[in-house]
Amino acid sequence: MNVEIKRDGLILRGLLEAPRTNEYDIAILMHGFTGDLGYKKTDLLAQVAQRLHEYGIATIRFDFNGHGKSDGRFQDMTVSNEVADGNAILTYTRKLPHVRKIYLIGHSQGGVVASMLAGYYPEYISKLVLLAPAATLKEDAQNGELQGTTYRPHHIPDALPTKKHLIVGGFYLRTAQMLPIYEVAQQYTGPVCLIHGDADTVVNKKASERYHDVYQNSELHIVSGGSHQFKGAARSQALQVVTIFLEGFE
């Protein structure tokens, strides 16, 4: 079912898929920088959702502002307003009539958003899954680097063209330098599953290792040969870890 949620004058567009049962658990899926909710069957979040559906877990996944089919300009997107997007989606999900437990699953920058949202709303999140969470974005911003594009970190431009032919707003870079990522994330003390590929060239696995250090109740899985998108055999392994964690660890 297509869903539309308003947040500060913007419409966020997403997809809610739920079993026809009286009650169910639901996972909120959050995509990464420049990504979308997973419109192709081969997309990571699409396959995560499909796997969860096989086990009776509902999913809601959506495009962040400035991405996919949601309103807004990509240039105006920041991690902070993606957290605001996530807050709107969580509020919507909490009001659904048949929901028991709510899980958060975030990939890359969506993992950062999910970790912070769980820190802000720990009592509502039963479990948290972070797939290659891009917490290194703060360090990158402080060093003046964005996925291969460099800039002067103390003289940030209002707009930064990237190698992907997208324009990142200067406010994204300025706020990224000061994000309290781990400070907020560690307020969540529930079960956390961290999954990271050791061949990830976009986000170093040290990000997940640091999350593992600050969380009180986490498990860390380093996937051999896993890329940032967990392609090939690494995808199957990552999906299996997610399934086992949500189905078998209370």
UniProtKB/TrEMBL annotation:
Gene3D superfamilies: alpha/beta hydrolase. It comes from the Bacteria. Pfam families: Hydrolase_4 (PF12146). Residues 41-142 form the Serine aminopeptidase S33 domain. PANTHER family: PUMMELIG, ISOFORM A, RE40534P-RELATED. This is Serine aminopeptidase S33 domain-containing protein.
